[in-house]
């Protein structure tokens, strides 16, 4: 007599729980396929469409690095809601679910991989309105949350103590609800701390009221019947990327600059994008055509240097919208540092030169971030920072490690032993992280340069 396997029963149950209209074929078991299938949801930090139409984010990079290590291709199954993603995993429609949090009452249904990050869920509010002190201040207000998330479970637990607490679970993302909150359409929402920090770069009137429960661990999720070989390979992968710094590098790539700007900085930048940038845009376009560096990055650097003031002058004698020294201006053949066009084109060419001087093995985006630091403090001090990184067992090709050594160049015990001497290396870190943040905002509101735009050459 033929028996039904537990794995097949789980597939049936998973599909029934998810409300499937039809049964989808489960993925082949790990070890029998050339494809790693990842189930996830869209998220502004973890998994999103970039300006080139492809995917980016922490989830995407971790998954593709893991698949590369295994010699497999990746395929992403993107669900609308986290509960649907978990149901799809139970139905064996993917090998791993990533970028999700599981409610405590469902933990028994899954197996969890290693923890790689902690996430705090938070109540967000519009700072033009009074800040709520606790959940009682949410009663009678318009609170919307994305349906199918862990937020529903946590709010339901609070509701047992506050029966009058109400909210509306809607079929949309936290990112969209944060926009509605910023526009004062709703009074409160719930999102994770990274989403709120990122959204505040675009909508500075967003704020955090208080936390919703304890922080949760971010980890990959497997069905109860996942192959032990896959679980083992995952453990080995995370051991490796934690040891060699890959994980910290990826976390810094997406999250490292989210703390840099204050609300006032963002408000001024948004205002200046409307009032000042239109008169300078053509020069930034020309700079990209000349150097192949994204015009939005050049504009972000220019803003950090001078607030887009062509007449800016520092106490040390650097001048112009790109704050060029006399030596750099002479090297770039600039006749007038206070001429916006000359300064922008020269600054972009100088940044390009610095990027080219770095060792070829340094990859993006670290190559750009390190070049920005060199723009601020000079290439020689970057050589010293990289030398120091080697001495203290850090990686000289990674920006996340140079962020640690650059500030040390102002301390006598370090700069006395290096070739180029003392410098205010911490300022290079501040500039680079600020430019990264402004660049994010530029990419949000301004499209990339079209190659067919007239008048560039």
Description:
Residues 35-258 form the Solute-binding protein family 3/N-terminal domain. It comes from Nitrosomonas cryotolerans ATCC 49181. It is a peripheral membrane protein. This is Membrane-bound lytic murein transglycosylase F. The protein is an alpha/beta fold and 457 residues long. The protein has helices spanning 6-17, 58-70, 82-90, 150-159, 174-182, 193-200, 228-243, 246-255, 263-275, 277-291, 295-306, 326-331, 340-357, 366-377, 379-391, 399-405, 412-415, 425-445, and strands spanning 35-41, 48-49, 55-56, 73-79, 96-97, 110-119, 121-126, 143-146, 168-170, 188-192, 206-211, 216-223. It has three domains: 6-113 and 218-255, D-Maltodextrin-Binding Protein, domain 2 (3-Layer(aba) Sandwich); 121-214, D-Maltodextrin-Binding Protein, domain 2 (3-Layer(aba) Sandwich); 263-445, Lysozyme (Orthogonal Bundle). Helices cover 46% and strands 14% of the residues. Strands 9-8-10-7-11 form a five-stranded mixed sheet, covered by helices on one side. α14 (366-377) packs across α18 (425-445). The radius of gyration is 25 Å and the shape is globular.
